[in-house]
Write a structure and sequence with these properties.
Layout: E1 7-12, E2 18-24, E3 27-34, H1 47-69, E4 78-84, H2 88-105, E5 109-113, H3 114-120, E6 125-126, E7 139-144, E8 149-156, E9 159-165, H4 171-181, H5 189-196, H6 219-235, H7 239-270, E10 274-278, H8 285-298, E11 301-303, H9 315-326
Parallel strand pairs: 1-4, 3-6, 4-5, 7-10, 10-11
Antiparallel strand pairs: 1-2, 2-3, 7-8, 8-9
Helix pairs in contact: 1-2, 3-9, 4-6, 4-7, 5-7, 7-8
This protein binds 5'-O-[(R)-(carboxyoxy)(hydroxy)phosphoryl]adenosine and zinc ion.
5'-O-[(R)-(carboxyoxy)(hydroxy)phosphoryl]adenosine is lined by residues 15, 145-147, 172, 175-176, 187-190, 193, 279-281, 283-284, 311-312.
């Protein structure tokens, strides 16, 4: 008789979150994340500081995940790790840790593409929670994170095609840069979301880029936002302070309009109405509301991950690892971190 349980340890260290998760037969038993406040003072992630923080955090984070899951290291069947894309030094910490730990336990390692994992977060199930409805293949996923903005045609768990992507900044970067221009702290996306709740999104207008097909561009928006703020501040030094909510709501609604117009176009072009969102920006409350409205209007079935599986986490890495484990899709101990790792 086979083993009754398959236990996968997932490790995520691609940017500034050190995370570990344990998934048993596809269900999440533990999902631990150590953030890195150190970057706040610099207004963005400092790669070298991130690597050092990962080195410090990785052992306690994995130990905590095993303790919460009640799973011993001897019970582990494989270790899944983010191989890329991301910051090379950060990825190296998770990759080296995963390989060394697996070698010591004589179990396989499984490499995971971070962007695939954001999408596969839709298949996350928690122990003791009723399973949620999963997207049916093929579906479209709008992946919006700090580093990426893509529309992905998801044909199967590991058969994904990027049909649109940003030519410059990512949507999360657009949020973070706008926040930085306003003097808000890093990461600015959640703060813009919070202040926008009280604001009028039509108060200030920003130009939409005219990019053909399903690709995006956010760098022009950043520049026009910078000029707009500088102009207004020249006339009124208190402009940001006195209009914070309206400015946040206006830049947020522009970013969402740009994302939604391409997503609608992708749905029309492919005829697919199974629509998912993933990545840090999918935590945005206005984007979630807009999707809900579009669901009614366009007859979409929409899928939005729980908040904790939108931003970077290791549960999505362990879930992706579990599905790869079922296919016996293991990785060589010779594999190394890949800063660039296309879908
Ligand atoms: O997926 P993620 O955690 O990390 C990457 O893989 O990049 O995404 C982080 C991005 C940051 O740019 C952050 O500002 C943005 O997601 N973000 C948000 C919200 N929560 C996180 N942007 C807008 N509204 C939010 N509520
Ligand atoms: Zn991410």
């Amino acid at each position: 008789m086979g083993k009754p349980f398959i236990n996968i340890l997932g490790i995520e260290s691609s940017c500034d979150e050190t995370a570990a998760s344990i998934v048993q037969n596809g269900k999440i038993l533990a999902n631990i994340i150590a953030g890195q406040d150190i970057h706040k003072a610099y207004g963005g992630v400092v790669p070298e500081l991130a690597s050092r923080a990962h080195q410090k955090n990785i052992v306690p984070v994995v130990a905590e995940a095993m303790k919460i899951a009640g799973v011993r290291k001897e019970d582990m069947d494989a270790i899944a790790f983010t191989r890329g894309p991301g910051l090379l030094g950060s990825l190296l910490v998770g990759t080296s840790f995963a390989k060394a730990f697996a070698l010591g336990l004589s179990i396989p390692v499984i490499e995971v593409n971070h962007l695939q994992a954001h999408i596969l977060a839709h298949f996350a199930e928690e122990k003791n929670t009723a399973p949620s409805k999963k997207p049916a293949f093929p579906f479209l996923c709008l992946t919006v994170s700090g580093g990426h903005t893509q529309i992905v045609l998801v044909k199967d768990f590991f058969d994904m095609e990027v049909i649109g992507e940003t030519l410059d900044d990512a949507a999360g970067e657009a949020f973070d840069k706008a926040a930085k221009i306003m003097g808000l702290s890093y990461p600015g996306g959640p703060l813009i979301d919070k202040y926008a709740l009280e604001g009028n999104g039509e108060k200030f207008r920003f130009p939409h880029p005219n990019i053909p097909g399903l690709n995006f561009s956010f760098s022009g928006l950043k520049t026009s936002f910078l000029y707009f703020i500088n102009e207004r501040l020249k006339k009124d030094p208190l402009f940001i302070e006195q209009n914070k909510a309206d400015i946040c709501a206006s830049i947020q609604s522009t970013i969402i309009d740009i994302l939604m117009s391409k997503l609608k176009k992708a749905s029309t072009l492919t005829g697919i109405k199974e629509i998912a969102v993933a990545g840090g920006v999918s935590a945005n409350s206005a984007l979630r509301k807009t999707l809900e409205a579009e669901k009614e209007r366009a007859g979409w079935t929409t899928y939005v991950p729980k908040f904790e599986y939108c931003t970077d986490n290791a549960a999505m890495i362990a879930i992706a690892g579990y599905y790869k484990f079922l296919k016996k899709d293991f990785t060589s101990q010779r594999a190394t971190a890949a800063a660039r790792y296309p879908l």
